[in-house]
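Below is our example:

___
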Amino acid sequence: MSGPLVFYIPGELTALNEYIGFERTPRIGSTLAANVKKRETERVRVGALELPEVKTYPVKIIMTWYCKDRKHDPDNVAFAKKFILDGLVRAGVLKQDGWNQISGFVDNFELDPENPGVEVSIIAS
């Protein structure tokens, strides 16, 4: 990998508190939460399809979270990195998202009410 691989996921991904709310819905919570994970992972997969496969490991992943407001704490927002990593694996960009492939993460948080989303950069470690 000669330079960073960068892509943008438009819109906010589901935050942790919202995800927990889906899980706790009586009788159908696990189904709702599973559907959220599937939907968000697919959003990332589709957005990452243009990226080439990473050949050199490990990598570091930098995520800049552009939030429309301060409704969620940064740790609740960054929970969605699970969807990002799973989507990158499903898109064939990463082989896996384990210890041998990922050396670390950097999370940056910005406010952007007009264009919320996540910029993801994959760099060689």
